[in-house]
Amino acid sequence: MHLLTTFCVVIIIQLYFYFFLFRKYTSFKQKKNKSFQKAVSVIISAKNEAANLGCLLPKLSEQEFPSFEVILIDDASNDNTLSIMNSFQKLHKNAAFDVKVIAINPGDSKGKKVALTKGIAAARYEHLLLTDADCQPRSKLWISHMTHSFSKDISLVLGYGAYEKRKNSFLNKLIRFETMLTALQYFSYAIAGKAYMGVGRNLAYKKSIFLSAGGFENHSHVRSGDDDLFISQVANSKNVAVCDHQDSFTISKVHLKFSDWIRQKRRHITTSSHYKSSIKLMLGLFYLSQFSFYALIFLAFITKTHLTYFIPLIILRFLVWYATINRTANRLKEKDLTAFGPLYEISIIFIQLYIFFKNIISPPKYW
Length: 367
Prior knowledge:
This protein has 367 residues and is α/β, with parallel strands linked by helices. The chain folds into 2 domains: 2-24 and 277-361, no CATH class; 29-256, Spore Coat Polysaccharide Biosynthesis Protein SpsA, Chain A. It has 13 helices and 10 strands. Helix 1 packs across helix 11. The protein starts with a helix and ends in a 6-residue tail after the last helix.
């Protein structure tokens, strides 16, 4: 009887997340604000990203937006990153947009946060739009869509950073499913007035809120966190907007090796330990309910205990789960991920468990 009672509690928790909390995003309607007319500073920090900049920079020059500047920061690269940046600046000397290049010497290189701080200090405009060098805007209207939510009250805009699709790759779909599920969570929390993260691949905020918060000073001891820890610090229930129009997406190159992806996730989980206690509690509860759902199903079928009650509850959970995941996939243009969603979900649960214990035994020292 204890097994069934525990399972009922787990189902209630899962239904709370998928039917109530995550529904805030799946039923969310993007506000159609009048066109944003103010100038924007697009900021990209890069370290040894010569190959990726060759793909990103032409996309920036194609942006259809009345007034913007591009600020490129070379964080002490030892490849051709700076040369490509300077060439881009020279090529667009008479373009409708301005290009600024900031070169950081090896002795002054202290991580992405310092590089971004230099770029933000050099920004001419109040409204900032940030992405990474290995990303590309999905459309020519990227700047327009990511900034149209700005207003007197809205100082932060959270966007979606998708990954490129590859055929016949389980790893590709696993990474994209995890990215989609993460977006479902941080979008939902933001709409609920409890924003705790964004992704540096696609993020906009006002320069004034950055300066008033002291930049990244509060978490300067953490190498990463220029996106999620900063959002967690400055966001409140009224100053955050979500943008999920398909033309606002950025597309990043995806990891081809499982080990590279695990290395990235280990770093992200380390950063999440600095989230607010209430957020860590909610995220932990969600993960625990996911793990317990599958673990208790396994125990019930092994022991053949209360299957008459278990099966309807399992069906109920999956009906709500599929409805939520399907709506999210439709909104984020990830429709190919729903068919085998449970397989990806189970895989991610055990990968996260592995990373959790791996980080305890051997804390990552790479970034």
